[in-house]
Design a protein that fits this description.
This protein has a six-stranded parallel β-sheet with strand order 1-2-3-4-5-6. A six-stranded antiparallel β-sheet has the order 7-8-9-14-11-12. With 488 residues, the chain is α/β, with parallel strands linked by helices. The protein starts with 40 loop residues before the first helix and ends in a 9-residue tail after the last strand. It folds into two domains: 31-351, TIM Barrel; 372-479, Immunoglobulin-like (Sandwich), CATH 2.60.40. The chain has helices at residues 41-55, 81-89, 114-126, 152-159, 194-204, 211-218, 222-225, 247-250, 286-305, 342-345, 347-363, 374-381, and strands at 61-64, 130-133, 168-170, 189-192, 235-237, 309-310, 384-386, 401-408, 412-419, 425-428, 440-444, 453-459, 465-468, 472-479. The relative contact order is 0.08. The protein is globular and about 75 Å long. A hairpin with a 3-residue loop joins strand 8 (401-408) and strand 9.
């Protein structure tokens, strides 16, 4: 989240801006995060934190806000840029009386102005960590609000030698209606894949006409990224992020509950593709809880086993809830905080995610020891698509199931079966190559822990079919792809 100085008072009365998307100074770390009271305390402590994390092998990516400021619109305060040169620092209406608001915060910086571009470059260069530019599509708008992918600010960032080798990640849409996923910036930019989020959510809630898109998302969204010859890693795959519902709430609510924000529930996105599994909000019903836990496992499985770069939200691996609030920017309280007791309460899900991550890393390495990207693994595995019947994937609008088989020559393979239907389906299993041994079940999200993810695969009793229960995912492996892993 943003770490430079922001206006904590930029929130409804009685609340506090907790996320930091209200920048006042682009070069100073937020003093409220420092334990020291002197002027350089926050700077020293931030540098020490980054060094310590780097030493521990943890990479730091900053979410930076360079498209607007805390000065807001006409009724907003004046901190700096409005007083320095309001006309040039901000995008204004033709008569200069109103601020163009493509960011949803009251104003948008005029990055066509050379001074603003130099200011942004100096800010980015001063950060000795990798950058994530939140909502940078607003930077592509010209003085009339029109978008251009050849915007000067993007060219300058792309070509800056100081930024060579840095990670650049774009949230490639803005509240003004621009949606540039798959077409933002140059080759260096990775993107939050909003299509992945929406298509996975719609498939898991059993919407119609979702299987064809599911196949694209599992393969790294080639319909979006290969058009510009971008690698699948360009896609940052996610189902949830800070700006929206938690994974637990995604399957616990049918609508947003942002009343505590003081804006009469008008804030936050209203298009979320939710399903509460039959009961709105928290419940003690064991069947509803089992279904919600299964849907959470399904979402995590699809995210971590899809080609691309997976991103998980804080607390999703232990079912953190925001009580249905999908815009908790002003909730500096239990709604936004992390409850560490969840790690014990939902240790079964925590274990499941740990094993999924190990499995992903295992799939990304050649069994003979040579490293492969997951995309290269999928390419070499020569994916074969099925439905409940072999060689006959049902991609129709009423389908809710898909299966895929991948073999590596002389190594074995895997077989994935996905069922978002509200009843069990009997899937046919493909023949196993000679010398690979039988299919062994590794994952079955319908099962309770520890059977949901076996640390040593179970051999299938029937080598020709497998019954995949309602709203669940099964992964089988064979040959050298059959593995033993442990979360310990």
């Amino acid at each position: 989240m943003p770490v430079f100085q922001f206006d904590a008072q930029d929130a409804p009365e009685g609340l506090e801006n907790y996320w930091g998307y209200s920048p006042m100074s682009f070069l100073a770390p937020h003093c409220g995060y420092s334990s020291r009271g002197d002027l350089l305390g926050c700077l020293d402590e931030f540098r020490d934190m980054v060094k310590a994390l780097d030493k521990a092998g943890i990479e730091v990516i900053l979410d930076v806000v360079y498209n607007h400021t805390a000065e807001g619109g006409v009724g907003g305060p004046t901190f700096s840029l409005k007083g320095l040169d309001n006309r040039f620092y901000y995008l204004l209406s033709d008569d200069l009386s109103q601020y163009a608001d493509y960011t949803g915060t009251g104003n948008a910086l005029n990055t066509n102005f050379s001074v603003v571009r130099r200011m942004h470059r100096s800010k980015i260069e001063s950060k000795a960590v990798h950058m994530h530019l939140g909502n940078p599509v607003s930077l592509t708008r010209d003085e009339h609000g029109r978008s251009g992918n050849d915007a000067p600010i993007l060219w300058e960032i792309d070509s800056d030698p100081v930024l060579a080798g840095r990670k650049l990640i774009a949230e490639a849409w803005d509240p003004g209606g621009l949606y540039l996923v798959g077409s933002f910036g140059g080759d260096r930019w990775k993107e939050w894949n909003g299509r992945f989020r929406d298509d996975i959510r719609r498939f898991l809630k059993s919407d119609r006409d979702t299987v064809l898109n599911l196949r694209q998302r599992l393969l790294g969204s080639p319909d979006i990224y290969t058009k510009r010859h971008h690698p699948p890693e360009q896609s940052i795959n996610f189902v949830t992020c800070h700006d929206g519902f938690t994974l637990n709430d995604l399957f616990s609510f049918d609508g947003k509950h942002n009343e505590p924000n003081g804006e009469n529930n008008r804030d936050g996105s209203s298009e979320n593709y939710l399903w509460n599994c039959g009961v709105e909000g928290l419940t003690d019903d064991p069947e509803v809880e089992r279904l919600r836990a299964r849907q959470i496992r399904n979402a995590l499985t699809l995210n971590l086993l899809s080609v691309g770069t997976p991103m998980l939200m804080m607390g999703d691996k232990v079912r953190r809830t925001q009580l249905g609030n999908n815009n908790a920017y002003c909730q500096n309280n239990e709604v936004s905080w992390f409850d560490w007791s969840l790690c014990q309460r939902h240790a079964d899900l925590h274990r499941f995610v740990q094993l999924l991550i190990q499995l992903r890393l295992r799939f990304a390495a050649n069994p003979r020891g040579n490293f492969l990207s997951l995309a290269e693994f999928i390419e070499r595995a020569k994916i074969q698509w099925h439905g409940v019947h072999l060689w006959a994937p049902d991609l129709s609008v009423d389908s809710h199931s898909l299966a895929a088989t991948g073999y590596l020559e002389n190594e074995g393979g895997f077989h994935l079966m996905v069922n978002a239907y509200w009843g069990s389906l009997c899937f046919s299993l493909p023949a196993v190559p000679d010398g690979c041994g039988p299919w062994r079940r590794l994952i079955d999200t319908f099962q309770d822990a520890p059977s949901d993810f076996l640390e040593q695969e179970a051999e299938t009793r029937d080598p020709t079919t497998y019954s995949v229960q309602s709203r669940s995912i099964v992964l089988m492996t064979t040959g050298r792809c059959a593995i033993e892993i442990s979360h310990k």
